[in-house]
Amino acid sequence: MVEPILGTCRNVTVDNWFTSVPLAEDLLQSKLTLVGTIKKNKRELPQQMVYTKKMEEASITQGRQNTMEIVFLEIKIQDRSKKYQP
Description:
The protein is built from 1 helix and 4 strands; from the N terminus they run βαβββ. The protein is mainly beta.
């Protein structure tokens, strides 16, 4: 699917169905980068990246694995049953 852009130093954006560390490594060898959503239960993710902690409203976790940078952005969804109180 990405054959026409191999070696062009472009970015490929995917959803969590396609995102994986092996895919990112393969694309990087072809001079392509990958941005996508990924579920925390993927086996290839570094263990220190999947640590879940209590968070206030938003949490950003960042780490490196070989030539890749992994950034997790977690946003706490507010209970929609509560009324907004300024």
